[in-house]
Amino acid sequence: MGARKHLRAEERKEARKTQYMAALNDIPTSPRKMRLVADMIRGKNVEVALYALQFSPKEASKGLYKLLRSAIANWEAKNAGERVDYNTLYVKEVFVDGGAMLKRVLPAPQGRAHRIRKRSNHVTLLLDTRKAAE
């Protein structure tokens, strides 16, 4: 490995020490609907994001709320049970990828059939502290 590549890898490794992640796989919601909810909380403080998800009428917000709580618990576990400082902890990244797709057939008139695609998704959420970002 070259020197620049090695230095860059070390920088990334140091940056990941302040990031805390949680992932949720195979949620039976379409990725498009989940991305609408994920866009609401991206870049927000943890407290604001929790309130936004808790009071959102969308069905996808329930799964994302649990995922955010899990990421906060991961932060607490890594920091030996410290209390969460909601002023510095924020949602750095949320990305939604398409998951497995169930393919079904719906009978249609005149001997035809329409394909039904029941989509699922994978969500990954990264938390970071503001002090490390600035």
Low-confidence stretches: none
Mean pLDDT: 90
Per CATH, the class reads Alpha Beta
Helix content: 40-55%
What's the overall geometry?
extended
Terminal CA distance: 30 Å
**Shape-level CATH architecture:** Alpha-Beta Complex
Provide the domain count: 1
Describe the fold and architecture.
- This protein is α+β, with helices and mostly antiparallel strands.
- It has a single domain, classed as Alpha-Beta Complex (Ribosomal Protein L22, Chain A), CATH 3.90.470.10.
- It contains five helices and five strands.
- The strands form two sheets. Strands 1-5-2 form a three-stranded antiparallel beta sheet. Strands 3-4 form a two-stranded antiparallel sheet.
- The longest helix has 19 residues, at 60-78.
- The two termini are 30 Å apart.
- The model has no long low-confidence stretch (mean pLDDT 90).
Please give a quick description of this structure.
With 134 residues, this protein is of the alpha+beta class. It contains five helices and five strands. A hairpin with a 5-residue loop joins strand 3 (102-107) and strand 4.
Note the topology:
Blueprint: H1 3-16, E1 20-27, H2 31-41, H3 46-54, H4 60-78, E2 89-98, E3 102-107, E4 113-118, E5 121-129, H5 130-133
Antiparallel strand pairs: 1-5, 2-5, 3-4
Helix pairs in contact: 3-4
Key words describing this protein structure:
three-stranded antiparallel sheet, alpha+beta, extended, 134 residues
